[in-house]
Design brief:
Elements: E1 4-7, E2 15-18, E3 22-29, E4 32-37, E5 42-47, H1 56-70, E6 77-79, E7 86-91
Parallel strand pairs: 1-6
Antiparallel strand pairs: 1-2, 3-4, 4-5, 5-7
């Protein structure tokens, strides 16, 4: 059963991000975090500046995914409250 995070995106409807088959969550810059999936796909999340040495966004995503996976299989979508405003999500 797939599970998803419901992610609020500024000036858009919530975006559903899969928490299944995630290999890594990395930080590519102060304003971008990247989720890499086993399939080779990526989700690039553009967010407010978190600072040069801050991994708050990456850690927050990882913790939210862990919590979503710990819930019952009938809880398919988990709400995500990011620590920074998210302005865009791009899937590649």
């Amino acid at each position: 059963m797939d599970k998803f995070l419901s992610v609020p995106v500024t000036a858009e409807t919530n975006f559903y991000l899969s928490v299944s088959d995630v290999i890594a969550i990395t930080r590519s810059s102060d304003t971008e975090s990247i989720i890499t999936y086993n399939s080779g796909n990526t989700a690039t999340i553009t967010h407010d500046n978190v600072g040069a040495a801050d991994f708050e966004m990456r850690d927050s995503l990882q913790n939210a995914m862990d919590k979503a996976l710990e819930t019952s299989w009938t809880n398919v979508v988990a709400a995500y409250d990011p620590p920074q405003a998210i302005s865009a999500i791009a899937i590649a």
